[in-house]
Amino acid sequence: MGDDKKDVAMDIANAKRRRGVARGSITRIETRIAQFEGKMKFTASDRLTIQRLQQKLESSSTEFKTLHLFVMEHVEDEARAAEQADLDDHENKVTELEDRFDQLCARFEDERASAPAAEPSVHLQRRVDDLMAEVKDI
Where in the chain are the domains? Predict the structure, then answer.
């Protein structure tokens, strides 16, 4: 019986450590978001990076919650309030980061919409010139 309690205690400790790793990933994502927020102009690859970070946030958050639920199932009643507060903090942080991602995406779209139309390619311009010359000959 003592070994079972020891095993559960070890499983809880491991889950808490892995949950901490997921929390660390989310903290690093937050740092990357801040870097993008500080940029004056986005590049094409920035949009892809932002999308990847959004996916990573989602997977890290899911992992955190899965591990958290395992911990909640096995902790004593006295510790549940603190664990619930930890989950609430996590949910608030993830919601805030999702909002910041939305703002970055909106900024990216605004930049794209306000960008001047691309210059026609040389080949296209030559074709237009040829057509104009043909029209004049008619």
Answer: 2-137
Question: Rounded distance, CA 138 to CA 40, Å?
Answer: 51
Sign of the dihedral through C-alpha 95, 101, 103, 109:
negative
* Tens-digit pLDDT profile for residues 36-91: 999 988 888 998 999 999 999 999 999 999 999 999 999 888 889 999 999 999 99
Q: Could you count the other beta carbons within 10 Å of the beta carbon of residue 50? A: 19
| Residues whose CB falls within 8 Å of the CB of residue 30, separated by 6 or more in sequence, listed in order | 93, 97
- The pTM of the full predicted model, rounded to 2 decimals, is 0.75
**CA-to-CA dists, residue 65 to 3, 4, 52, 81, angstroms:** 27, 24, 20, 16
